[in-house]
Q: What sequence folds into this?
C-alpha cells in the first residue's frame, strides 16, 4: 500500500481532522510507503496573510508530529516544497473538463452564494489530483467531505491514462465509517467554516467551556434516550475508553441523568485523551529548527518520488524531445 494524504494549514486542527483523517495517518505509517503533507498551496486560496500562512504551515507540521506521525517511518513535508506537483497540475488541467470542476462543491457552493470565486478555487481539485498522482499513491485516508475530490482525481487519471498510456496509479479513498463525519458542537459536521469546532490543542479550561456549550435536546431528564445518533454521545465515544462508552450508553438507555453530567465526562475524557500529544506539542514548538529539518528531509524524499512520476507523465504526453 502506498498511502498519501494532506491537511490544509488554515488554523488549529480540530477533532474532525483528527478522528476523520490524522488518526488514520498514524495507523497507516507502517505501510510500505506513506506521504503526508501540509497543503499550503491549497490554503493560499483562503489565507491571504503571508505571515499567518507561514505560521499556520509550521504549526500544522508540529501538530502532526505531536499527534504521533513519525518522520522515521512516514515522509512529512510541505506541499510547495515539491514543485513537481504544480507542474503535474498543469498537465492534468489541460485535460480537465470544465463541467466536472463546476460540479465540485467548494466552487459550486461559493458560486451559489453569489460570492466571487477565483481560478485557484475552481482548480483546487486538479491540484489535489496532482498531489495524489505524483506519488503513485493507491490509498488516500480522508474524511467523507473529500470523497468527491478523490473521484475527480480518479476521473482525471483515467482520462490521462486512456489518452497517453498507463502513467498513473489509480487511487482509492480510505474512510473510517465511524468517524467519516465528526459532528461539531451544534450537531452539524464539524468544520471551521461552521464555527462549531473543538480544537485538539485548546487548553483544557477553554475546551471545557466549549464542551458545556454543546447543543442538546430538551427531553426531561428521567426519559430514557437512544445514544446512537446523539452528537454528544458520538463525541464522547471518540475520546472515551470502550468500557466508558458502554457504561454511558447504558446510562442513556436507562434515563435519569442530565446532559451536564455527560458533558463533564466528555471534558474529562478529552483532557486525558489528548494529554500526551499536548505535552509533546509544547516540546516540539520550542524546537522549530528541528521541525524545519524534518520537513526539508521529507521534501527531499517527496521530490525524489514525484520527479520520477512527472518524468513519466511528460514523456507520455510528448513534452520530452
Ligand atoms: P482539510 O484540511 O479540510 O481536512 C483535513 C482532513 O480532515 C478531514 N475532516 C473531517 N473528517 C471527519 N469529520 C469532519 N468533521 C472533518 N473535517 C475535516 C478531511 O476529510 C481531511 O481528510 N483538500 C484537503 C487537503 C488536501 C488533500 C490532498 C487530502 C490537499 N491535497 C490530497 C488528501 C489528498 C482538505 O482541505 O482537507
A:
Amino acid at each position: 500500500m502506498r498511502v498519501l494524504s494532506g491537511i490544509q494549514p488554515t488554523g488549529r486542527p480540530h477533532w474532525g481532522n483528527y478522528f476523520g483523517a490524522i488518526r488514520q495517518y498514524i495507523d497507516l505509517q507502517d505501510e510500505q510507503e506513506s506521504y503526508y503533507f501540509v497543503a499550503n498551496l491549497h490554503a493560499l486560496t483562503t489565507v491571504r496573510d503571508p505571515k499567518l500562512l507561514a505560521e499556520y504551515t509550521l504549526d500544522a507540521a508540529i501538530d502532526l508530529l505531536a499527534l504521533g506521525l513519525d518522520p522515521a517511518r512516514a515522509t512529512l513535508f510541505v506541499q510547495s516544497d515539491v514543485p513537481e506537483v504544480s507542474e503535474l497540475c498543469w498537465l492534468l488541467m489541460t485535460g480537465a473538463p470544465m463541467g466536472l470542476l463546476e460540479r465540485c462543491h467548494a466552487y459550486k457552493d461559493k458560486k451559489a452564494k453569489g460570492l466571487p470565486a477565483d481560478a485557484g478555487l475552481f482548480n483546487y481539485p486538479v491540484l489535489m489530483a496532482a498531489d495524489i498522482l505524483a506519488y503513485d499513491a493507491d490509498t488516500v485516508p480522508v474524511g467523507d467531505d473529500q470523497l468527491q475530490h478523490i473521484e475527480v482525481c480518479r476521473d482525471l487519471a483515467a482520462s490521462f491514462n486512456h489518452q497517453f498510456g498507463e502513467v498513473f496509479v489509480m487511487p482509492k479513498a480510505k474512510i473510517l465509517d465511524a468517524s467519516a463525519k465528526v459532528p461539531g458542537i451544534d450537531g452539524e459536521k464539524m468544520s471551521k467554516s461552521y464555527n462549531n469546532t473543538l480544537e485538539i490543542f485548546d487548553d483544557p479550561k477553554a475546551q471545557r467551556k466549549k464542551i458545556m456549550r454543546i447543543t442538546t435536546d430538551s427531553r426531561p431528564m428521567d426519559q430514557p434516550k437512544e445514544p446512537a445518533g446523539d452528537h454528544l454521545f458520538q463525541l464522547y465515544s471518540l475520546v472515551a475508553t470502550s468500557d466508558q462508552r458502554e457504561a454511558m450508553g447504558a446510562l442513556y438507555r436507562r434515563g435519569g441523568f442530565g446532559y451536564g453530567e455527560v458533558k463533564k465526562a466528555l471534558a474529562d475524557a478529552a483532557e486525558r485523551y489528548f494529554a500526551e500529544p499536548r505535552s509533546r506539542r509544547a516540546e516540539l514548538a520550542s524546537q522549530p529548527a528541528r521541525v524545519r529539518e524534518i520537513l526539508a528531509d521529507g521534501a527531499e524524499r517527496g521530490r525524489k518520488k514525484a520527479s520520477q512520476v512527472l518524468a513519466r507523465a511528460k514523456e507520455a504526453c510528448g513534452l520530452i524531445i
Observations:
- The pocket of tryptophanyl-5'AMP is lined by residues 5-8, 16-17, 20-21, 39, 42, 128, 131-132, 140, 142-143, 145-146, 179-182, 189-191 (CB under 6 Å).
- Residues 100 and 170 are 18 Å apart (CA to CA).
- The chain is about 55% helix and 5% strand.
